[in-house]
Amino acid sequence: MSMDPLRTGRAAYDEHHERSREVQWQADKWMMAGSAFMGTAIFGLIGLPLFFRGLVLQIRAQKTGLSVRPTIVTLIGYLVFIDAALNSFGWALDLVANHTLLARVFLMSWGNLFDAGYFWHYNELWIGGATAPGEKAWEIALLPIVFCMRMAAAIGFLQMKRWGHQWLIVTCWFGVVIWCGYVANMTIFADVRYSGVVFPVIGWWIYNVFYITPFLAIPYLHTVNREIFAD
Amino acid sequence: MSRSSSEALPLGTTPPYARMHRWLQRGLFVCLTALVLEGAFTFPLMALWYGWPTLSLQEICSEFEKIRFADESRVCIYPYPLFGPAEGAGQRTAQDLWGVQPKPRYERVEFRELIKRRDERIARQAPQ
Predict the structure, then answer these.
(1) pLDDT by residue (tens digit) across B27-86?
(2) Which end of chain A is more exposed for a tag (fewer CB within 10 A), N or C?
């Protein structure tokens, strides 16, 4: 019996495709579980090994020749998600849960250590929470618009969708605006934010510099061959 | 391994940008790990700095209120009434130098200083 070469080739392709999807999903399950923990901040140490286990599975699959997502796409997608989740967590606490014990101990501690925007006259506005000039406006604007949108974009990007790539570009540029605006605000109102603070300015920078995700993502997003993202 | 051929490059990376993508990937690794470590250790380390477990979380909350509103009679009400006014609304005790920019007068809090502040206050307020 003779084999149809075209049919055999297609079957091999389908099998490769199916196998790649399976391995990617397996790796993603580990990484999603890891990110869920890492996004909560306090349980991050549980999440990190789970995440790295997924990443190792994916890199191993890549080496065996399976068509899985590029490592850098995975890192950008998950990092953007975690960055947005951590920001949302802190700001949601301040915006709607500012009279909880958690907020009044840990936001206050953070404020007293690095940025008195979260200490000075705290819980004095009718809406409660941070009272530093401009801070509430940032929260109201950025939480529902930028951070929610960034998380959605990161998911689309991880699925290698064209819209995920496009919206990640849009929201990462939002990130640049946030960084510039926020730092300018803190500089202009430096007396409020850094007087009586334990680790002012340099402490704040050392703590927050790891949120520079947009600056690492944008050069990649603009130079990657966008054909790899599907409609 | 030579990276001159495009076969060796990750999907989506073209030769002119290979080096940049490699460095970005390293930066992303560092940021991800640092964010997770910060996230995991910030809360426990802050609690230690401000006096836990010698002080309960509610006592820490109370000490913060006394400092920020410069009022020793302040206590941290917990649980706080759900629809009550903001705890600091209308206060008249906080100390600031008011000008074009307010400058708070409270001092920085040293490592576990809240415990010392509490003990000194209790000693001061104790009947002679």
Answers:
(1) 998 998 898 888 888 889 999 999 999 999 999 999 999 999 999 999 999 999 988 899
(2) N
Q: Is A140 on the interface with B (CB under 8 A)?
A: no
User: Which of A162, A173, A177, A168 has its CA nearest to residue A150?
Assistant: A168
- Report the residue of chain A nearest B9, measured CA to CA: A70
d(CA A178, CA A14): 45
Chain B: nearest CA to A1, how far in angstroms?
37
Contact A207 B78 (CB under 8 A): no
- Residue B95 CA to residue A196 CA, distance in Å, equals 12
- Is residue A70 packed enough to be buried (19+ CB in 10 Å), middle (13-18) or exposed (0-12)? buried
Q: Give whole-number Cα distances, B98 to A63, A84, A94, B95, B102, in Å.
A: 64, 36, 25, 9, 5
Nearest CA in chain A to B57: A105
CB contact under 8 A, B39 and A78: no
Distance CA A164, CA A190 (A): 37
Maximum alpha-carbon separation in chain A: 86
Please provide the DSSP assignment of B41-75 as one string: HHHHHHHHHTTTTTS-HHHHHHHHHHHHTT-TT--
Distance CA B32, CA A83 (A): 8
Alpha helices (H) along chain A: 5-38, 44-63, 71-96, 101-102, 108-113, 135-141, 148-158, 162-188, 190-194, 202-208, 213-223
ipTM score: 0.89
